[in-house]
Amino acid sequence: MEYTINVRGQLLDLSEPCVMGILNVTPDSFYEGSRKQTEREIAERACRIVGEGGRIIDVGAYSTRPGACKVTEQEEMSRLRFGLQVVRREQPDAVLSVDTFRPDVARMAVEEFGADIINDVSEGNIGGEFGGTDSSHGSAAPPPIFRMVARLGVPYILMSVEPAIEPMMMRFAREVQQLRDLGQKDILLDPGFGFGKTVGQNYAVLRDMGRLQEMGLPVLAGLSRKSMVFRVLGNTPAEALNGTTVLNTLALERGVSVLRVHDVREAVECCLLNSKLKSKGW
Question: Measured between alpha carbons, how far is 84 from 111 in angstroms, rounded to an integer?
Fold first, then answer.
């Protein structure tokens, strides 16, 4: 399907799948290779993402792995300010996504650093699992993060914590309508692999995720080195690249527009080969 999103007044074409590279300014993200804390590490990672063909850099400062320590809003902002100024200096033209569920952190990232996309892995923090007070589970009122991104006017990635496609699509429909009612224009859907799902449920969602195309919105898949890969293969996140590549390919076959990954070059190659398979010009 043909999709575009508005990034700083320019249309980013998602009709051909693209890659979002992960840059974590955290000490405790689940995959050790993604943790970048010094100025040099952050700069090198940002340049590598772009150099290997990544279209979007996704910066996160709050680890959401199981058992991770809670991070205060002030600490999250401090980490992001340090990381974002380095990324903006090194790659000023890169599309910059910020991974946060907190409205004030989102506002800071957009207003101070021109962040282009807000990537919320909490689905509006509907159950309050990530701390703070921005839970509206069971309420007709939209979550505060919905109101904030609509006010900021940047694309928003809405991730689901539902364990199956049917309830996921039903809740997506309600939440997308809430966002539309607030004036939010650009929305991407993320089925939330690894969030609120068993390994088996993750695979069932992957199998059926082509149905998300019925929502008429671009879909992002974050499968990179997750437990649904390494638990099945009996290895570790560090050994899960090959399995990740397999699942990324399956996601592309089901219509995904964005792959969120640790290993950019390999994912870009997946996109190129998938595009060649679908091409009618050869």
Answer: 12
Percent of the chain with pLDDT over 70: 89
Q: Averaged over 40-60, what is the pLDDT?
A: 96
Taking the C-alpha atoms of 147, 148, 151 and 153 in order, what is their torsion angle to the nearest 10 degrees?
A: -110
The pLDDT of residue 125: 76
Comparison of pLDDT for 129 and 240, the residue scoring more: 240
* Confidence at residue 34, expressed as pLDDT on a 0 to 100 scale: 46
Contact 99, 121 (CB under 8 A): yes
The Cα–Cα gap between 172 and 180 comes to 12
3-state SS of 173-189? HHHHHHHHHCCCCCEEE
Is the torsion defined by CA of 88, 94, 95, 101 positive or negative?
negative
Closest of 222, 224, 142 to residue 184, by C-alpha: 142
Q: Alpha helix (H) ranges present in the chain?
A: 39-51, 73-90, 103-113, 144-152, 165-181, 199-208, 227-233, 241-253, 264-278
